[in-house]
Amino acid sequence: MENKPLIGQPLSRLEGYEKVTGNAQYAAEYNIPDLLYGYVVNSTITKGKILSVDVSDVLALQGVVKIFTHENRPSLAWFDLQYADMDAPPGTVFKPLSDNIIRYNGQPIALIVAEDLETARYASTLIKFVYEEETFNTILSQNLDKAREPKIGMSTPLKPPPPKPTGNFEQAYASAEFKTEAKYRHGTEHHNPLELFATTTIYEGDGKLTIYDKTQGTINNQLYVANVFGLKYKNVRVLAPYVGGAFGSGLRPQYQLFLCVLASLELKRNVRVTLERKQMFSFGHRPQVIQSLRFGADNSGKVTAMNHNAVGETSAYEDYNEILVPWSHKLYPAANTLFEYKLAPLDLATPIDMRAPGGVSGMHAIECIMDELAYKLNMDPLDFRLNNYSEIDPSTQKPFTSKELKQCYKKGAEKFGWHMRNPKPASTKKGNRLVGWGMATGIWDAYQFPARAEVILTKEGRLEVHNATTDIGTGTMTVMTQIAADEFGISVDEVSFFYGDSKKPFSMFQGGSAITASTGTAIVAVIRELKKKIIKKIKDSPNSPFKEIPEDQIVFRNSGLSVKKQPDLFITFQELIKANKGKEFKAAKLAGPDLLKLRKFSKATHSASFVEVEVDKDLGTITVTRAVTAVAAGKIINPKTARSQILGSMIWGISKALHEETLIDPNLGKYMNANLGEYHIPVHADIPEMEVIFAEENDGLINELGVKGVGEIGMTAIPAAIANAVFHATGKRINDLPIHFDKLMGHHGY
Amino acid sequence: MENNSSILTSLTINSKDYKLELLPWVSLLDTLRERLNLTGTKKGCDHGQCGACTVLCDGKRILSCLTLAVTKNGSDITTIEGVADGKELHPLQKAFIEHDAFQCGYCTPGQICSAIGMLREGKATTREDVKELMSGNLCRCGANSGIIDAIMQVKEGIDHE
Hints:
The complex is a heterodimer of chains A (750) and B (161).
Chain A: H1 16-21, E1 35-42, E2 48-54, H2 56-59, E3 64-68, E4 101-102, E5 108-114, H3 117-123, E6 128-133, H4 169-175, E7 178-186, E8 198-205, E9 208-213, H5 218-229, E10 236-239, H6 255-267, E11 270-274, E12 289-297, E13 303-314, E14 336-345, H7 359-376, H8 381-387, E15 392-393, E16 398-399, H9 405-416, E17 428-430, E18 433-444, E19 451-457, E20 463-466, H10 476-488, E21 495-498, H11 515-540, E22 554-557, E23 560-563, E24 566-572, H12 573-579, E25 585-591, H13 595-598, E26 605-616, E27 622-632, H14 639-659, E28 664-665, E29 670-671, E30 689-694, H15 713-716, H16 718-730, E31 736-737, H17 741-744
Chain B: E1 7-13, E2 16-22, H1 28-35, E3 54-57, E4 60-63, E5 75-78, H2 91-98, H3 108-121, H4 127-133, H5 144-159
Parallel strand pairs in B: 1-5
Antiparallel strand pairs in B: 1-2, 3-4, 3-5
Helix pairs in contact in B: 2-5
């Protein structure tokens, strides 16, 4: 019996049993003997200095072991660079407890370590800080005058500044027959994965630590801990076999890791630090952004001029960058473009990438102004996109490795029934509700990072695959197993993928929708290496039936070796091991993108979303009732888990458009809704009927697998599609997200 | 907590009897996670806002983070670890796997315990009812459709019996 090809099969998650039975263990769930509990204390002022700390009441409490503040923090690594993780933006990285300066509200200023969680938490209410407060700025719209060019740093190549202007925008815009300009405002958002950030540190002695941490990058955090605490890399092991969501918040080591390790090393004890939900609002977030766009078109409905200007929020100590503004020119071939991006430093924590960073905010503005322009031209919004469709990348004039966006438009529109749309705003009613249909385009990069994988054909004839990547809920473990099994001609049951461990071969952090392309490609490469080794061995062994068979005729299938046109000549992997005197076969290999080849191409994933909303005529409440997203993202390894990625990101898009926002009190400089009751994310009752379509996209150039990644693309078109649908329903353009009923009723509140 | 006298508390958890010396300020959630190593029950907010800590107490779904353990003296608690029948998964657990009703898996135990309690309450007739009655359980990954699909499949199975 032939093995079915595993790539393309909708396998259920291989770790499903662990997750539905409660056996899956997350960072705070390791049962370690003699464990101490750390509780973080956060600043209650926004900017200033700590003048004094009074810990006497805390020390009097039975069960308190130690209090760490800036006054007794042991001296650690001196240079800023030693604190810089792989995702650190330009600037000076924040070093917890290193001085008495308060940079933002909620900054960690003490760690209380106690024998149990309740005591540590209670003790945190007894510590007294005396501050000297300074005036501060936390609202972007009030600080646009502070906007300046972002600094250049190590992460700049991954997040380059906007491209240079092309043509002459001002002239082209002035003379454009149709034009429109608009301003778009996005508030703060926090990732809020459901698992709280937590670290459990096991003190192994002799400068050796085993750390269970909530992270998207085991090696990133291993290097951080070793550099900061002066430990040998090999003595620091960071494990994250299960990660309860992260969405970008785990791309950098968070402060509970630092504090937990500090306590563990100082006390020579096992320590756990878990953040509270309110503390999940005290580090990275999606920044406030204000965007101004001007787009012009000619009589034939061709976009001729595009200006996209954005100002984003960053902290006073690091320059967090997003790629916000250049996306329109990867889609629409306007001859005159002007893209500008600046940062305004505010007294807040440094923002951090949050699902589809930059792209989702930028595309919201771009696809809303495209909709507005389509209305000015009296064109159907979809026809307007097709009229400006480009097979090549207009910004580089290079062809795409593949681009099936047209198929997304077609299949999405058909499924949705777009052709039945009456273009007139506020024309469709359903009882007391106005019905609106909107659409938008989505785009995201197709990243691939270098990754190293190791494979072992074990004595038992099983295949072991090793790589340090995490699986943050993306289905990575299942997908990597499928890729390995397919490439080696073995069944999924006979493959074990070992991951989520800094001891394993290199992987970048899991971000940018890049891991399937990165680790997946490395797995293909290393298995090919392993197969070569095996073939050489078997051809060299005496009396081998494969001796005279040309190398390219030997195939791996059905958990053994065979010959292309002689399926009867077959030995199992077990027999192979026996022939190898019972010894295992091993290979390791680093693989990365083929930069020489890819230099000649642009690469991107694309999507098109179609959305129906209903708006209550009297109350202005908005409900998404239907949503269709068609995605072109190359080869889909597992349609079940990939569909879940798209569904999840569509819900993130709905949330960004209609629900979530962290609100800052400008007088306190503090987030006022730092809890899940007031930070609104969609609940089950908010979820509409949703459809996901994957376009057929064969990409023979991008990498060996032809994959591009699906973690973020499903989100990028949704906010604009919703805003456009709200316009279609009501005739009102609301450019501030999230769109709440009060904005529709005319009270913008800003 | 200057006067820290613990209280003897009897709990039956997943058919096993426990006698515990507990301080009154310890939540049922922290009793399960930190004292009994039953970490299948999750802490997502500790404020009754996310539903990740849902367990069944005398058959009814409750939020273990908002429950002080000592107040449940004599109660019968079922956590996610006690939902399956030995190795044989509960129909909801099977349906969750089949419908890909989770991604990161962190809200999953709470969703499953809540769904068991919700179906027992017998108030849900339609899919919309189920969505409404399950809305106390948040899922940040956005696996909502799969969760409701899985519950509906099991509910229809029960309804046809």
